[in-house]
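Support case: zinc ion complex. Customer-provided input:
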Amino acid sequence: MWISVPLHKGKYDCAAGIDNWLKGWSHRKQNWCCQNKGIGCLHEVNCLSAARACLCSSRQSARNMEAATRLRDPHAETPQSLFPQQELEELILNDKKAFLKTKCAECGGSCGLAKKYKETMSVIIKSMIDTFWCRDCGRVLCDTHRYQHTCEKLDALKEKNAKITKEALLEQLRADEERKEAAEAAARAEQRRAAEQLEQEKSQRKAKRKILATKAKQVESFIQQRSRDADGLRPATHNQLLELYPRARGLALALYNQFEHPDNTEVGGKDWEDVKEIYSKARELTGMIIMTEDGPLDMHNPWEPAPADDQ
Ligand SMILES: [Zn+2]
Ligand SMILES: [Zn+2]
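Agent response - structure generated as follows:
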């Protein structure tokens, strides 16, 4: 009888100890390497000891033949349990009842599908297809045979591996490993690139917020200064200017906070629009403008679209 070993989810180094795999490897490792790499399969050797539950190649092939005949004969009592993926998915979605009755392609017994999936939504069952269906050969299988069955693809791999030299086998394992590492490295690089871009965008937003905060502060100081120096201003005008000041101050503070403690909100937004409006009002009232080192304060920012030509 074929020993039933629980499917090991982890990974073994199938190159390690390959010289002495029969005696040196645990059953779990033999099983894993056989199922995943087609190496260290017990039925490739003769039964060496009765104590070790191994499968003789003759018994294995007899059973394989049996299963294959059962599957290929359209009049056989055992239902056909070979499916292309799409066909099986359609069966699950369109005729769940029939699907739940599907027999194991290896032993012809129940797959226990009804027990497991009676109450499960079809789309969920579909997403778990790998637990009862073999991608390599298309068989639907019971739990016992899901990872122990006649599998043309795996058998071909085993046969190939049994014939090639140990060096070639090691080379094949190494190439497998390299491919996997390359894929992982590419994924990591992509992650890094995305993180860098995010960081760059963040620092660009911070630079913009700094410009806005600086300009708002200049507007605030301008209004403060003009309201103190009321000479030549009509009282009504002066009052309007005094009313503008607290608003300018609040906005300057808000924009400074957005620079110092940035969140994910849009740069500027309504606060910045208000600052522009206040500055334009203040210019009207005072008939003066803010002069900076670079000339008149430009309320148009370099990253914004060119202003409409309405001045
Ligand atoms: Zn079975
Ligand atoms: Zn298979």
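The chain has a mean pLDDT of 81.

Case will auto-close in a few days if no follow-up is received.
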